[in-house]
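Researcher: I'm preparing a figure for a lab meeting and need a structural model of a single chain. I don't have an experimental structure, so a prediction will have to do for now. The sequence is pasted below. Please return the structure as C-alpha cells so I can convert it later.
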Amino acid sequence: MSIELNYLDTGGDGTPLVVIHGLFGSADNWRSHIKAWEASHRVVAVDLRNHGRSPHVAGMGYVEMAGDVLALLDRLSISRAHLLGHSMGGKVAISLARLAPERVASLIVGDIAPVAYGHDHDSVFAGLRRVAEGRPANRREADALLAEHVSEKAVRLFLATNLVRGEGEGLALRLGLDEIQDDYESIMGEPAGSEAFAGPTLVLRGSASHYVADKHLPALREVLPEARLVTLDAGHWLHAEKPDAFRESIDAFLAEVEPTAD
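Model: Understood. Here is the structure written out cell by cell.
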C-alpha cells in the first residue's frame, strides 16, 4: 500500500520535473538546484518513505517506493513527468519508468546502475546508531559521534542534514533508521520491473565513483536502451560536487526532449 509522501512543489506550467533523492537524503538537499530550475520548470521534490518528513513504514522495496511516487503524481494530477533520481532515488525512478512508462516523459539517472550492489553502508549505519543513542546536544557533538565510525567529513555533513531538534533535550534523527536497515537488502537490489524503458534517458555518472563502472554498462543498456551516458569529474554525490556541470547536462537534455515530451 502506498503512503502519502512529503514533497516540495514550486508550481508552474509544463511537464514537471520530479526529483527523487538517494539513501539518507531528502528533498531539502536539492533546494539550490530547485531554485535554479523553478524559473523554467515546475519542480516537485519528494521525501521518500522513512526519509525527510515522510512517514516511517516497513518495507523499502522498489515496487513500494515507486508506488509512493506514482500515488503522489496522481494526487497532484500530474499525468506525465520528467523523472530525476540520484542513487537509490535513481533506482526508484527506473522502477517507475519500467512499471508505468506512460507516466514518464523522460528519465534522468544520477550515478546508479540497474544492478544489485554489495553492502556499502555498514559504517554509516553504525555512526547513525551512535548518534541516535547519544542524543547530542548540538551539531558539534553529533559530528564527533558520527566521526567514531565515519571518517569522511563530507559524508558526515550530508548525514547531519537528518538531524532535528527532538521532543526532549538534544538532537534526533528524522530517518526511519530501523525500517531502512531492516530492508537494506531491497535497497541494494535491482530496481523493480521486467521490461526495458525505451523513452529518452540521460545517465550521469561520476568518474571517481564505482556505482556506474564500465562493467555495469551492458546491464544499463539492456534496461535503458536509449540511455545517453555523460561522465562528470566527480564522485558519487556529483550533484553536490559539480552542481553547475550537473545542472548544465540536465538542462541541455531537457531542452532537447521537452518539445516532444508532451
